[in-house]
Specification:
The structure is a single chain. This protein has about 725 residues and is an all-beta fold. It has a 26-stranded antiparallel beta barrel. Strands 1, 2, 3, 4, 5, 6, 7, 8, 9, 10, 11 and 12 form a twelve-stranded antiparallel beta sheet that branches. Strand 7 (about 100-110) and strand 8 form a beta hairpin. It is elongated and about 110 Å long. About 20% of the residues are buried.
């Protein structure tokens, strides 16, 4: 018995195998014997390293005269990348292991797909040919040798260069039951990321379209582009072709998706949808992004399960963001799908240009800001009056605005730890309005606000490591009470929350500004626990010198005194987060309320939200809103998961959306099934039930990432 002395064996191999030595072959074994000047016998824990391949066996006999290897197993042959593994009991191979025959062999690709064969033949160092093959990526247990799925074939050829697998006389079996016979089948091996061919089909059933099947075909157009075409045929005479084109460039990428349909829902009409999106990096750290979409009719996207949006937002934008600077130029186009809106009377084209800069003010101290902005929007209607939609906006109103704003704030630390801040801002706007009898013409507006803010944080450090912070805040502001007559289109919806309780202006846009002397008063309490949970509460209110009628009843900001704002948040280290906000009057009657609960646990994920708001015509809400939505996912075991989603409208006392789903994922199968129901209806859409089913073979074709493997019972 000879010890594993690698240096000595390399010398022996070099002397005995000159052809192999030229290629830097290395052999290691427990014992080594040379007989007849032409035969080398390595016995016991043999390892051979050659051309990036590694072979292990119990015995190898090399015959220099025939330049062949006789190998006794168990045999394990791997490539340099570890993506291909060959197991066998015996082998007769060429010296460079590029050709030969292996018996009782198994080929494992990318540690996923296994091909077991009675005989395996290596050809030209490129092809592996297998006879009487069973292929599967499922784990096989001794007590249950039947895999969940497998492909039986008379003959299989694996092309290592093209990374393709060719099946001859293939039979697909599920749990051992033959389901499908395919005379010829070609599939990419798991190491190939992109290859032209069919992807796994999807079955979808809806009450409007019937039962249909989608069969995607993926086409590689080069190293950086591909196209997917998906025919979709249903039992209710719907014929659809979907497409997706993708291309990557050195500085960005684009994606084009769309579909064309003919169905009986709208007889005689070709229906369709198109979307183009992408982004690019430009010189000087600018970024270009675009997203354009259009649809032939309002119901198409809902009918075919594309999206449930009710307005299409198409835009192109160039931006640059730096530490103290933001620049944006964008053009936006809107296409409404709502029954109560007309594309000719909404701002269908919007153009904005924004420059925002923050800077220090040197000897003056503090921080300042400058914002320059232009805004234009266009309506295709030319009517200068409000039409049948009765939205208090002239149907053809076109508007252009240029705005400039400067702001400044500086903080000081006063006695007793009080933080005092002096702040203010000033804006100037120029408007040009056309196609509107009430506001047509050009006008200007200037507005300024100034004030002081006092914060007095109280901090308590607890013996156990926790901490509490109580912070009362008083903000006294002055601004002019004069009101100009200007249209308000971008600030109709006003929120009152802890984020803008101490803001100089609570209007979200530029058309309206908050006016009049006022005091913003509030107090907050926060506790941080060393166990990882935290809790915060905020209570506040706005007091005004006079009610200028700027806010509607649904905002909570109307009147000399606003409604009370109460907000709370609670977060646990295990992923549970609860947030809530209430806006209520002195009688504790609710004006607005919102609550959200999220849980991201190892087995359960839940996201719920509830909103409550009174009716307010100024916010385009003629009826109150009371709605609950839930999205949940529960992991039933390592392989099975259930999903649920729902939305309920308490005003109409009915559900608007409900969905159930079941998912299964293990080492070789991904299975998804869902059932959903949309209860709402309009002139363009009707209540619809949707059922879908998809099955992917993991490690085979487009199956994707594997899940937990099943456990074998002892």
């Amino acid at each position: 018995m000879v010890a594993r002395l690698l240096t000595l064996l390399v010398v022996l191999v070099t002397l005995a195998l000159p052809a192999l030595a030229q290629e830097q072959a290395t052999l290691v074994s427990d014992s080594l014997e040379i007989t007849g000047d032409t035969r080398l016998i390595a016995d016991g824990h043999v390892e051979v390293f050659f051309k990036g391949r590694r072979l292990t066996a119990s015995r190898i006999v090399f015959d220099q005269a025939t330049n062949r290897l006789e190998i006794t197993g168990p045999i394990v042959l791997t490539d340099d990348a570890g993506e291909t593994l060959i197991l066998a009991s015996q082998a007769d191979l060429a010296a460079d292991m590029s050709e030969g025959i292996l018996t009782s062999a198994r080929l494992v690709l990318n540690q996923q797909l296994q091909l077991a064969a009675a005989e395996m033949r290596r050809v030209s160092g490129r092809y592996t040919e297998l006879q009487s093959v069973a292929a599967s990526s499922c784990k096989v247990c001794a007590g249950d040798p039947t895999p969940l799925w497998e492909i039986r074939a008379r003959r299989v050829v694996h092309d290592e260069v093209a990374r393709q697998i060719y099946f001859d006389r293939a039979q697909f079996r599920l749990a051992g039951v033959p389901l499908l016979y395919i005379p010829r089948l070609r599939m990419p091996d798991p190491t190939l990321k992109r290859s032209s061919g069919f992807l796994m089909p999807t079955i979808r059933t809806t009450s409007d379209l019937g039962t249909g099947i989608k069969l995607p075909y993926f086409i590689v157009l080069g190293r950086s582009a591909d196209l997917t075409l998906t025919p979709y045929l249903t039992t209710k005479q719907s014929r659809t072709v979907e497409l997706r084109y993708r291309q990557a460039f050195a500085t960005g990428d684009i994606e084009l998706t769309g579909s064309v349909s003919r169905d009986d829902l709208i007889p005689g009409k070709t229906r369709g949808y198109l979307r183009l999106k992408g982004g690019f990096t430009l010189p000087a750290r600018y970024k270009l992004s675009f997203d354009g979409q259009t649809v032939t009719d309002p119901a198409y996207m809902l009918d075919y399960g594309i999206d449930n949006t009710d307005r299409l937002d198409s835009r192109i934008e160039i931006t640059r963001t730096r530490r103290n600077e933001f620049i944006s130029a964008r053009i936006i186009s809107f296409q409404t799908l709502r029954d109560d809106e007309d594309n000719t009377t909404i701002p269908s084209v919007v153009a904005d240009l924004t420059f925002h800069r923050r800077f220090s003010l040197g000897p003056l101290g503090g921080e300042g800001g400058l914002r320059l902005q232009t805004h234009n929007h266009y309506r295709s209607s030319t009517s200068p009056i409000d039409g049948p939609d009765s939205d208090a906006i002239a149907d053809g109103r076109d508007l252009g605005r240029i705005s400039a704003r400067i702001d400044w704030r500086r903080s000081f630390i006063l006695p007793l730890g009080i933080e005092g801040t002096v702040l203010g801002e000033m804006t100037a706007d120029g408007y040009r309005i056309s196609e509107d009898l009430a506001f047509a013409g050009s006008t200007t507006r200037t507005h300024g606000s100034a004030g002081i803010e006092l914060r007095w944080p109280w901090v308590k450090a607890e013996a156990g490591g926790g901490s509490q912070v109580i912070e009362p805040v008083v903000q006294l502001l002055y601004s002019s009470s004069d009101v100009e007559t200007l249209p308000n289109e971008d600030s109709a919806l006003v929120e009152f929350d802890e984020g803008n309780l101490f803001a100089l202006d609570r209007f979200p846009g530029s058309d309206a500004v908050e006016r009049g002397p006022r005091a913003n008063v509030g107090i907050s309490w926060t506790r941080f626990d060393p166990q990882g949970w935290s809790m915060g509460v905020t209570l506040g209110r706005v007091f005004r010198e006079a009610d200028l009628g700027q806010f509607g009843p649904g905002s909570g900001l109307a009147g000399v005194q606003s409604d009370w704002l109460a907000a709370a948040n609670f977060t646990l280290a295990d992923g549970l987060a609860i947030t809530g906000r209430l806006v209520m009057d002195d009688g504790l009657s609710l004006t607005k309320g919102e609550a959200r609960v999220t849980l991201n646990g190892p087995k359960t994920s839940v996201a719920t939200s509830m909103i409550w708001a009174v009716a307010d015509p100024l916010e385009n809400r003629p009826d109150p809103t009371r709605e609950l939505s839930v999205d949940a996912r529960r992991k039933l075991n390592p392989n099975w998961a259930a999903t649920f989603s729902g939305r309920y409208d308490f005003v109409t006392d009915q559900g608007t959306l409900a969905g159930l789903g079941l998912e299964f994922l293990n080492e070789c199968v991904r299975f998804d099934v869902y059932l959903s129901r949309r209860f709402t209806s309009s002139t363009s859409v009707s209540p619809t039930t949707d059922f879908g089913l998809s099955l992917d073979l993991v490690g085979f074709g487009s199956g994707g990432a594997a899940g937990p493997a099943r456990a074998c019972r002892q």
